[in-house]
Model the fold of this input.
Amino acid sequence: MTVSALKYEEIMRGYNDRRLLNTRLMNERRQEVYSSIPEYREIEDAISELSVKRARFLIFGSSSDSEASVSEQISQLRTKKAQLLEAAGFSSDYMEMVYDCADCQDTGFIGNDRCHCLKRRIIDALYEQSHIKSVLEKENFTFFTYKYYNETEKMQMEKIVAAAHAFVDNFDTTFSNLLFFGNVGCGKTFLTNCIAKELLDSGHSVIYLTAHQIFEMLAKITFDKESDESDISFSYDDIYECDLLVIDDLGSELTNSFVISRFFTILNERLQREHSTIISTNLEPQKLVDTYTERSVSRILGSYNLYPFTGRDIRQLKRTI
Done:
């Protein structure tokens, strides 16, 4: 999984904060029980002494009867502790350490492996940095439908949807890129969102931006050194290194020499690093040459799988139905 270093540090600080909070709670409970049941502390001290004695037996050797006797005494004292707690109105496990996640004991790891709770927090962080968390609640494969396409359009879309599923299924083993192009409102962005959700749910980093957003952000990073850092969500490294970069609505932004140059750099860097990219645009590939130069478009034509979208504007159809 790839999440920004700052976000990962924030997640791990959260684990540390939870451990400190639960340790403080445990200390408060201990003092509460010691005040209510003076004998409880004496039993704990006795168990500690017996545990040291048993450890010595294990290290230096002893008769099995001696070791068994000490173990039995410890067991009896632990039973008495539980009885004292219940008699005073506490639950028998009141003095056990409390964890938000008992599996990893709030460390985020089970051995050297990430705990399920850490994996979930990383996925949540990936959603937050993707820019499309709320959108994906409704725009995903579960809600995809062919009802707005005629038979010819449906046949074409079935091929594209199959390619989208293959892109997701083979994401970790096959480097590929997609260019969705064609008419306004015929499903390019929706299908791209379907892909993004699948990859986010499997723990991949996805950055999803419109062409206008990405080039405006890169211009701020490059030229506006005094801009508020909270206005800048990503760095160049984030754009180059995320598992999947989605550039939506290419061609809608104001194009100039900076945009053309950065667009080529993004394409080139991600191809060299073998990080996948999806581009959606209303422009035909030949029209892209007129805007972004042949050098950039040759990268796309040579390294992307191209899928034409045809049909009516689904957004308008939904408003009339």
User: Anything to note?
Assistant: The chain has eleven helices and seven strands. The chain has a mean pLDDT of 87.
